[in-house]
Amino acid sequence: MTSSARTLINALIDHGAPPALISSGLVKKLNLQTRPLHRPLGISGAFSPDGHGPLELSTFVRLSVLSPCAQWQSRSQIFIVCPDLHTDVILGLDFLAKNDIVIDAHNRTAIDKKCGFDLLNPPDPTLARVPPKTTPYARRKAEAKSIKEGQAATRELRKQVHFELAAKFVKEAKKFDFSANTTEPDFVGMVRTRIEQLASAEV
């Protein structure tokens, strides 16, 4: 089992099938945008709806798949649309090669050799969860949103502090009246001192 666009789907790993295939029913269910292949792909009759005669595929979609535990996500991959496929997606040789997945039939493993994740034996999803990959643009957008929210919260706190201080000054004005302990500056004495300093400097 794997997921696409947060939709749980069935996936078949088949290193004998060169392309990665996706069911036309799943494409319709997920409302995926299809694009035409440069050249139609002919496949054997085993994939045809009636099981007889070759089948020609002409469209594809691009998507990535995510493990149910959200600890592994594939690279963006071309999936060729196959009508009435008997499973949601087939992860063929192209998919396995692009994602560096090594199949070991004896040990029944399908391991991503870059990170060691085993698609056939995923860890317990309750032990650890890794968030899905995000693009740099999405990360910058989330950071900018967080900064704006923090600035807005700070402005509100500053307003509250200003209001509280203003109310306290009005309510307890005597506590903040320091006029009795404040003396007027002696400007005459300051001028006299400065003149004496300049006179001594000239001598």
What key attributes describe this structure?
203 residues, Cathepsin D, subunit A, domain 1, 2 domains, two-stranded antiparallel sheet, alpha+beta
Into how many domains do the coordinates divide?
2
Per the CATH scheme, the topology name of the largest domain is Cathepsin D, subunit A, domain 1
Please tally the helical runs, counting DSSP H or I stretches of 4 or more residues. Answer: 4
Helix content: 25-40%
Distance between the termini: 97 Å
CATH level-two architecture of the largest domain: Beta Barrel
- Per CATH, the superfamily of the largest domain is Acid Proteases
Strand tally is 10
**Strand arrangement across the biggest beta sheet:** 3-8-4-7-6-5
Question: Major beta sheet, specifics?
Answer: 6 strands, mixed
Order of SSEs:
EEEEHEEEEHEEHH
Classify the beta-strand content into a percent band. 15-25%
Low-pLDDT ranges: 1-5
Shape: rod-shaped
Give the overall average pLDDT.
81
InterPro entries: Peptidase_aspartic_dom_sf (IPR021109)
Description of the structure:
Pfam families: RVP_2. InterPro entries: Peptidase_aspartic_dom_sf. It is a single chain. It contains 4 helices and 10 strands. The chain is rod-shaped. It is of the alpha+beta class and 203 residues long. The strands form 3 sheets. Strands 3-8-4-7-6-5 form a 6-stranded mixed beta sheet. Strands 1-2 form a two-stranded antiparallel sheet. A two-stranded antiparallel ribbon has the order 9-10. Helices cover 32% and strands 23% of the residues. It folds into 2 domains: 2-130, Acid Proteases (Cathepsin D, subunit A, domain 1); 137-202. 16% of the residues are buried. Residues 1-5 have low confidence and may be disordered.
